Structure prediction request, 219 residues.
Amino acid sequence: RSVIPDSVLVVVRSGILKHTLPVAINKVEVTINQDIKVLIPNDSVIPDYLGFYLKVFEKKILSLCVKHSTTVQSVNTSEFLSLDIPVPPISTQKKLIIFMQEAQKNYRSKLREATELLLGRNQYVLQRIGLAFDKNESSMYAIELKELEERLDADYYSPKFSGFRRQIDNCMYPSATIGEISDQIVSGFAAGKQEQADDLPDEERVPQLRPFSITPEGE
Prediction:
């Protein structure tokens, strides 16, 4: 269906609802699929205020309204629509919107600075050990049969990858494979029901990490 501008879009069916409630305000007319619900506020609420409120109380809303299944998470519509929300005067809503927008602007600025710092850190480490990525990678290349090693995947022999391997071979420091420098390489296991740890004392419990537990930044 078609959605008018300045509506509040909320994702109500997705695996991301395990940890995040995506909320956005559309600035142009859009259409949506069945996994998104649209909230069109009346005159007592500014759309941006409602959107910010939903994000501020995201964790509480997730704990109260999200249904968990074996396939995908979904928001319980009746529970979601029955949530109470403070409705201050429009003048107060506008002040809160300005405050949140400024906070978002500062966040994005600091995020850009942090990203530049991380990229600079990576380049510094590469330079210190005498390595560099070749930015001029060709999309087409060929090698002689005698150059083939144990692998046959084409990207392994690309100019970018093979050039990087040659840098490592000619590096000022000795090299070793990851397997050679690892005392152990251990796989995990699939966790079953939470009840499997219910009878254990607290000092014997340990957290289990899953893929979403580790961020791209290594946190």
In short: The chain has a mean pLDDT of 85. The longest helix spans residues 90-128. The two ends are 40 Å apart (CA to CA).
